[in-house]
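Worked example 3 (structure in, sequence out).
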């Protein structure tokens, strides 16, 4: 199966202000092309899933949002804006989005308490390192910890928590600046069934609170019911972009992952079987 079987990706329409605007964005990591003429608009308050197999370029897309990767400017006319800005550093953008990833979780395996992890979000640091914690920061941390319902373990060290528990504190860390968008990179890796259930409920609560969600995953069941838009990604390209109900089908998912599948929906979640 080849990408030529896909029609061109279509830009989803939504009246809210754009959070992210990419047009003809091509990115190289060294000599390797990792994004191929990506064009997409994601608006404030949208809940979007980027779905694709391993190696599709999903993490490269996130690194481009975070200004770790930059587009080639010799590939035609390029638009590369986040919150309407083309040139800004990641620190000026930290109030615009928060990110939770497995890579980030690996850096917090030392003896840092959950509460310290949340507070570290104010400084974009791994620990506090004698930082001055202002009363307003403590109040905000308390508010987030209460919202995420993790106060009973806030003083426990991260290396004493389960993967699911520690991931909630990383979410809290990402929320301290009231970001417009929460970006989740393969968020359910290493979670058991109980942790997966509680994690999903947490993300659903955040989505309903008005924070936009960009979920990057290779797993259909990660896509919570609140997500209405799905972008299918393969070989560094966005190959389909549209309504969840239209794209999470046997034909589209089978073609994306190159396996015969049967996709079924249950209580707003989608599952693939038969492969």
């Amino acid at each position: 199966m080849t990408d030529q079987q896909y029609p061109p990706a279509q830009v989803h329409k939504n009246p809210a202000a754009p959070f992210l605007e990419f047009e003809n964005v091509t990115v190289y990591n060294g000599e390797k092309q990792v994004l191929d003429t990506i064009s997409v608009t994601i608006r404030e308050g949208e809940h979007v899933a980027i779905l694709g197999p391993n190696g599709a370029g999903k993490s490269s897309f996130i690194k481009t949002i975070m200004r770790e990767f930059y587009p080639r400017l010799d590939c035609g006319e390029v638009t590369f804006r986040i919150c309407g800005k083309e040139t800004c550093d990641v620190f000026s953008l930290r109030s615009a989005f928060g990110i939770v990833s497995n890579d980030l979780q690996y850096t917090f395996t030392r003896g840092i308490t959950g509460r310290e992890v949340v507070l570290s979000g104010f400084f974009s640091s791994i620990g506090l390192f004698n930082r001055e914690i202002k009363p307003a920061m403590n109040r905000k941390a308390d508010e987030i910890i209460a919202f995420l319902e993790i106060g009973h373990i806030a003083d426990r060290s991260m290396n004493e928590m389960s993967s699911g528990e520690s991931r909630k504190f990383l979410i809290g860390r990402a929320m301290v600046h009231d970001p417009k968008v929460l970006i989740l990179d393969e968020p359910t890796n290493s979670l058991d069934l109980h942790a997966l259930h509680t994690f999903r409920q947490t993300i659903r609560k955040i989505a309903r609170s008005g924070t936009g969600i960009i979920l990057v995953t290779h797993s259909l069941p990660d896509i919570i019911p609140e997500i209405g838009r799905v972008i299918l990604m393969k070989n560094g390209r966005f190959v389909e972009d549209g309504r969840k109900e239209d794209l999470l089908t046997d034909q589209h998912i089978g073609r994306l992952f190159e396996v015969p599948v049967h996709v079924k929906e249950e209580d707003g979640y989608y599952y693939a079987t038969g492969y």
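Notes: The longest helix spans residues 193-208. The domain at 1-91+214-275 is CATH 3.40.50.300 (Rossmann fold).
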